[in-house]
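Lay summary. Proteins are chains of building blocks that fold into shapes, and those shapes determine what they do. In this project we predict the shape from the chain. Here is one chain we studied, written as its sequence of building blocks.
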Amino acid sequence: MIEKRPPEQALIMHFTHIDNLPAILTAGRLVADNVVGERLVTDVGSAAIKASRRTRRVTCPPGGVVADYVPFYFAPRSPMMYRIAREHEAGKPGCYPGGDDPLVYLVSSVDRVHAAGLPWVASDGNCAASLTCFSPRLSDLAHLVDWPLMREKVWKDVPEDQDRMRRRMAELLVHQEFPLDLIAGYVVRTPQRETQLRHVLRSAGIIDAYVVVRADWYYGFTRREVRE
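And here is the predicted shape, written in a compact code that computers can read:
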């Protein structure tokens, strides 16, 4: 699914709805939920999960709570995206209904963040789980993150390992804001979304961005599949 890289050069990815990109591109940065004044046009996140991240403490410097950080996953097809694709397309009341097709990955890498001197921490799993650990040290990444699991397409818990889903939700958290000049490229699900994204980028004056279609980074459930 993703190429094997040394942990210190691993890809990291943040996804957002394509409707949010014009404002993000204008700002030139991604910002943490707790940064005042930032609003999403289309919020795909769970209100309950966002609330929990505003109280979950980060137990190493620079500290604060998880919502003080811009989140990146180490692998596509995360459990969070599964929830968006499966539960939301099932028409769950009060939830974002659009599925994962309109979501755009903004892709960077650990070494880009580290070389830029941005303050960051990594987690070994779901930041909402009480047993999840954090570290700000590059040297800890090799054993903190379950890298073989990051390369697996199927991450669900199994009888012999009831912690797979939590570990697959490991994150790299960048404190407060992430400048877009550290983005290596963008990933979308379909050629139609690629065309739409390139139009959004051109409208923001960006003509040389690396954009690629990777359907295997998505779930793409239809409503018929959800009912079945």
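What the prediction tells us: The CA atoms of residues 55 and 65 lie 6 Å apart.
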